[in-house]
Amino acid sequence: MIRVFLRAAVAALAFATPALAHVTLEAPQAAIGSTYKAVLRVPHGCGAAATTAIHVQIPEGFYNVKPMPKAGWTLETVTGPYAQPYDNHGTPLAEGVTEIVWKDGNLPDAWYDEFVFRGSFATTLAPGPIYFPTVQECADGEEAWIDVSGDAAAEMPAPSVELVPAPASGH
Amino acid sequence: MTALLAALRLLLVTLLLGAAVTTPVWAHAQLLAASPADGVLLAAAPPAVELRFNEPVAPLATRLVAPDGGAIDLAAQGGTTVTVTLPALVADGTYVLSYRVVSADGHPVGGALVFSVGTVTGAAPAPTTDPASLAALWLGKAVFFACLFFGTGGAAFQALAPLPPAARRGALGLTLAGLVVAPLTLGLQGLDALALPLPALLEGDTWAAGLATSYGLTAGAATLGFVVAVAALLRRSRLAGVLAAAIGAVAMALSGHAGAAAPQALTRPMVALHMAGLLVWIGALWPLAELLRSPSEAAAIALARFSRAIPCAIAPLVVSGMTLAAIQMGPPGPAWLGGYGIILAIKLGLLVALFGLALWNRRVLTRPALAGDARARRRLRRAIGAEVTLVLLVLALVAGWRFTPPPRALADVPAPAVMAEPLLVHMMDDALMVMATLTPGRAGPVAIDLAVSDFDGEPREAQAVTVTSAAPGLGIGPIRRAAERTADGWRVGDLVLPAAGPWVIGVELRLGRFELRKFEAEIELP
User: What three-state secondary structure class fits B526?
Assistant: First the structure.
């Protein structure tokens, strides 16, 4: 009896976990060496509070980053040197955007919005997940989507893209 | 020989006082454990709630109060473990599962279990029985006992001697009243079972609930006993009188706590025996008082027969009382000093007076009264009147004792565990170490203290620290708690780890806006 109950409890836990709405990227997969249009989806506020700012940390190896401005939001970027220069159509790039901030906005919990930026995945990256740690700021707190452990049961995983090897035909 | 008899009588009284600890109305199943544990915070809604009792119970009402205050009635399965299947709980927050169950003794037990899913919110209080309903139930039972012992017991007196007219009329009135009161107590029992206010007595469900408890059998059998007693009184049948008393005694053994205690093969017959002794003794009081009004041959014969017969009623009363007392009280302990003990002391006090009076009647007054001494007879009548008053007081007390569990039931409830040694958990990654200390190191409420440092032992500052506790093997968790900053680290003080076994303790350090470090360790919680 107790065993049956425990099994049922474990099953219920397993089913309950994926139901949480996370901040995620629209395209879950990208090829190494490709350009990537990142669409960050924000499905809810911090609890019931409206989102007022979004901070995205750009991982090493995602270069030539250009955020898309957004009406009603103030766009800011933080730039810095890359760990190594990346090839931008023959021109080496040694520095660029390392953090994007959309701030002074107002996205109520009941509404949905997307925040867009694009860039390129360096050919030096290895296949596997690459994370874009994101902090969602609200008037009275924040939601930090910065867990890069890859743990399936992570409470607040960082938005990520699964990198796959470039197709053989290349470009 | 006389000295020996006197010594035996003294022994009898002493034993009777001991027997007083037993009444069939000392009630209650005790909740031993619940899953999820009371007060626990769960990551996901549990599919069911399990309540484990010390004896088999049948659920009467189970109601879930949601965080928004809305309530739904749920189905539950009975047994020693009651399983309440929960609907899908969509809303996070604190839920209250309030339950009413009835055990084999026929007495309902209510309680509430508070658990939270995802987050803790305010919880609505669980309902309790309306005091007016409880008062009505008490009064109903007290009157029922009076009808049984004086009415049916009076009918049984016919086996000893013909009833004087006044006592016959009185016993007839009480047994007829019993025919009304016994079924009425069924409805009152239903009110108690479902924790309803007095007006709900007009609803069919209330009566159905009362009938569904084991008290339904008692009320039914007692009603039958009253019918037989009425017939016995009208037809002056000695046999029917004895039969009515036997049915009444068996009826009382069908529910109530003493009869429900293990081993039932012993306790139920013992309760019946106890009741039979009481019926003979109490039932004789009123007829004797009437007989002693005036000197007559019939009165002398009746008194002499009663005097000879009463030890045969008292002896089984004592033996059964002693046996049941030993089972009910359990080994001596702090439980003896609870509300139960106080009520017991009051009853013992009344019984000391009662048996002192009975012994005085027997040793001092009976012989001169039989010899025709008018003064002794008057005194004996007054003494019997006082006995009746004391018996009524005891019955009133007994009718009110549905509310105190016997020490036997309390003994099964786990005592708070002794303070255990703190449990130390060491965690590290490629740069940092976390030392977690669980105090006390056992299942139950614990505090976790955390110290974060680098490999050189230098304390490392963090923006925020979160602790997670999960027992995947037990289907628990993870329970998330934000730690609070202390003088030399971080602390989670309001944690309940509800079960012993393997647990996974996780620590999340927020070191910067985008930097989160996670640590995890498995522990065996005693």
Answer: coil
Q: Which two tokens stand for residue B39?
A: 């007060």
Token pair 């901030």 is at which residue? A101
Strands B40-42 and B108-117: parallel
Cα distance between residue B519 and residue B462, in whole Å: 14
| Region of residue B457 (phi > 0: left; psi between -120 and 50: alpha; otherwise: beta) | left
d(CA B404, CA B321): 19
What does the block give as tokens for B422? 């703190």
Note whether A13 contacts B44, CB cutoff 8 Å: yes
Distance CA A131, CA A148 (A): 6
B227 residue type, one letter: V
DSSP codes of every residue in B22-65: --TT-----EEEEESPTTEEESS--SEEEEEEEEEEEEEEEEEE
* Beta strands A29-31 and A160-164, pairing class: parallel
- B47 and A CB contact within 8 Å: yes
Chain segment B341-361, per-residue pLDDT in tens: 677 778 778 888 888 888 888
| Token pair in block for residue B440 | 């006390």
Task: Identify which of A113, A111, A112, A132 has the alpha carbon closest to the alpha carbon of residue A121.
Answer: A132
Q: Distance (Å, rounded) from C-alpha B416 to C-alpha B493?
A: 18
B44 interface with A at CB cutoff 8 Å: yes
Chain B: give the shortest CA distance to residue A93, in Å.
24
CA-nearest residue of chain B to A143? B513
Q: What value, to the nearest 5°, has the Cα angle with vertex A159 and ends A156 and A161?
A: 140
Please name the member of B478, B480, B514 whose beta carbon is closest to the beta carbon of A135: B514
Q: Which of A9, A57, A153 sits opposite B475 (nearest CB)?
A: A9
Tokens 């000879």, located at residue: B308
Is B339 at the interface with chain A, CB within 8 A? no
Measured CA to CA, the distance from residue B386 to residue B379 in angstroms comes to 10
Pair of tokens at residue A55: 């901070």
Helix (H, G, I), strand (E, B) or coil at B247: helix
> Can you tell me the distance from the alpha carbon of B48 to that of B71, in angstroms, rounded to the nearest whole number?
16
Q: What is the pLDDT of residues A64-118, one digit of tens each?
A: 999 999 999 999 999 999 999 998 888 899 999 999 999 999 999 889 999 999 9
The token duo for B93 is 């927050």
Distance from the B515 Cα atom to the nearest Cα atom in chain A, whole angstroms: 7
| Share above pLDDT 70 across residues of chain B, in percent, rounded to a whole number | 83
B215 vs B17: CA distance, rounded Å: 27
Inter-chain CB pairs, A–B, below 8 Å: 66
What span, in angstroms and rounded, lies between the C-alpha atoms of B456 and B479?
31
How many angstroms separate the CA atoms of B151 and B228, rounded? 11
Chain B residues with CB under 8 Å of A148 CB are 516
Q: What is the pLDDT of residues B112-169, one digit of tens each?
A: 777 878 776 654 444 556 778 888 888 888 899 999 999 999 999 998 888 888 889 9
Question: Shortest CB distance from A5 goes to which of B48, B476, B478?
Answer: B48
Q: Which residues of chain A does B468 touch, with a Cβ-Cβ cutoff of 8 Å?
A: 155
Q: Can you spell out the DSSP letters for B190-208?
A: HHHHHT--GGGGGSHHHHH
Which residues lie across from B108 on neighbouring strands?
Answer: B102
Residue A116 identity: V
Backbone torsions φ then ψ of A154, nearest 5 degrees? -55, 140
Calculate how close chain A gets to B261, using CA atoms only, in Å: 25
